[in-house]
């Protein structure tokens, strides 16, 4: 489902998440490990404020692990507890519980000193659509919990799910809006599948993907498509070579550019060419 975020929706989502935050000790901010900056909600710090935070870099299986380590250091420097996981294949789930314990240690020590009884850590997940919130909840819960749909905010009927020995998780995540001011961020959100195809220009997204690969994995790109195109060649030459190699032709032996665009986006998005992190920390102003 494609949702358009209007100011009213955003205010409502923010309000609802703020309401749920009162019930938890720690927030799991879920981002896509391929775009750890671009897949964050633009007002996330204002929403979460000082609440202890575990930043979960999900879809690790499709990301560049070296870049991911740099992002983990970045989030650590900000005072958060980052963990990189692959929710789909259930990898790194234990790290989430361990990080939650560390993030709330001080609070629980204070409670203990006050004579309060030990209790489970309460957590909730927040993030933009498609970063894997439902997948993670289902994996942590060891069962399938109905997807809430990408409606703004959080739905009403909530339950706590027991995870491991020390954690309780709200079964419905807080859904916040993505960044949409910046064109480059939009292309990154699109190439990773975080925003739906209909709201962006697909040719620009495919060109973004192609240019990223030329710069960061020229050999991998050439090998994948079995084409030999110079790095400095125009994008159209790449499209032509890829289209011909893959037999994406129209009548008259013309390259079907729409089909080439779809192919490139699909294959980059699903990590068919390689595993990349498009937010490259040294190229960014963060
Ligand atoms: P959301 O609740 O945040 O909106 O996201 P959701 O869990 O629906 O996940 C969005 C897509 O991301 C799903 O793919 C899901 O399988 C995939 N995904 C989630 N976590 C991971 C991960 O760690 N690695 C990989 N590779 N993919 C992940 P889909 O194509 O929409 O659905 P499906 O065909 O996989 O069921």
UniProtKB/TrEMBL annotation:
Query: MF terms per GO, please?
Result: GTP binding; GTPase activity; RNA binding
Organism superkingdom: Bacteria
Q: InterPro entries, per this entry?
A: G_CP_dom (IPR030378), GTP-bd (IPR006073), GTP-bd_ortho_bundle_sf (IPR023179), GTP-bd_ribosome_bgen (IPR019991), GTPase_MTG1 (IPR016478), P-loop_NTPase (IPR027417)
Does this entry carry the keyword Nucleotide-binding?
yes
Domain CP-type G positions: 14-178
- What keywords does the record list, in alphabetical order? Cytoplasm, GTP-binding, Hydrolase, Nucleotide-binding, Ribosome biogenesis, RNA-binding
Q: Where is the signal peptide?
A: none
GO annotation, cellular component aspect:
cytoplasm
Q: Where in the cell is it found?
A: Cytoplasm
Residue positions binding GTP: 58-61, 130-135, 174
The processes (GO biological process) annotated in the record are: ribosome biogenesis; translation
- What function does this protein fulfil? Required for a late step of 50S ribosomal subunit assembly. Has GTPase activity.
Member of which family? Belongs to the TRAFAC class YlqF/YawG GTPase family. MTG1 subfamily.
- NCBIfam families, per database record: GTPase_YlqF
Q: This chain belongs to which protein, by name?
A: Ribosome biogenesis GTPase A
> Which species expresses this protein natively?
Staphylococcus nepalensis
Taxonomic lineage is: Bacteria, Bacillati, Bacillota, Bacilli, Bacillales
